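Annex B.
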Amino acid sequence: MIHDVCDSTLDRRRVLQAVGAGGVLAGLGGRATAQRGEGRGEGSNAGVDVIARQDEGVVHWSLPGKRRLGQTVFGTPDRPRATLQPILDLLDDPDGPVGTLLQELPILVGLPPAARETNGDGTAYTQTAVPTPFSDNVVRVSGSVHATYRDRRPYDLPHSYGSSPDTVDVDVEFTDPNGTPYTLDVHHTIQPPIPTWETGGGVITDTWIHGTTGTESPLLPRTYTYAAFWGICDVIVEGDVVDENKVIHAMTIQNMRRADGSIALQSEMPLAPDETFSGQAHHTQLIVPPITVGPDGPVHEAVNTAYTLPNGHTQPFIHLTFEEDTIVKAPFARWEFPEKE
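Twin-arginine translocation signal domain-containing protein: predicted structure tokens.
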């Protein structure tokens, strides 16, 4: 279901300069060895740059809602997959900040069976039992994004605290469904301390995430990723900083939004351009989840958006899809449409 909102003209201002150097807050460690594609350079300064941008154009603002569940990722009630407990078992301290975050926000890594609805005879999962940031209920707003992903280290390091040479340079501005203008001030990249996530030091290129990959939420389908980053940002509304030290994740990926506006299941991927909403093979997604990073690590805490939901609460996350992006630079870019699973 897609709702239209009139475009708003935004005064452009460049506020997003992510330096990706030191200063990563305590508690953000990581794992080793990310899945990588081909074409990595040699030498300390070698690496890959990917540049994606969208001038003022169509953006989808995702509203909270239930997410369809497919058997490929989540299994069946008799044999559930992508559950939370196996991830918690990998933590040295399940009751520490990361374990607490995952128990309060399990959609980062999986979905407990109790949070799933089933069909009438209980043989298949149908959708989440609770609202998520990955629903098919979106509002068409407007915005722009210019992103340069600099991938200099193609693997994670155990317990890394910001030593990665990976950096990003991002300009992004957009409106919420009421036309209120936002910008995001990205401070630096991070290597999230989530078991099974492989983030290549905070920036990855030419690889796969989501779905059954073990990296990022399985509620989105496994998707080819031109580039993605994880970082820390401040949220700016109408020129004022309203929230600080929030996690941000952005990715330029193969298009997963179907022509009817819904997000594809993994079994429905890949989508050919003529099967997508925008008619192109890729788009750029950005999410600011309800996570604040403090001195002791990540904490589940709502984003201070300015958009009030029908239930009277402000929306606790930002999830945007820039549907008219252009990949300006991706030295490895190649695209074919293999058979669906």
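The CA atoms of residues 53 and 146 lie 4 Å apart. DSSP finds three helices and 15 strands in the chain. Further annotation is deferred to the next reporting cycle.
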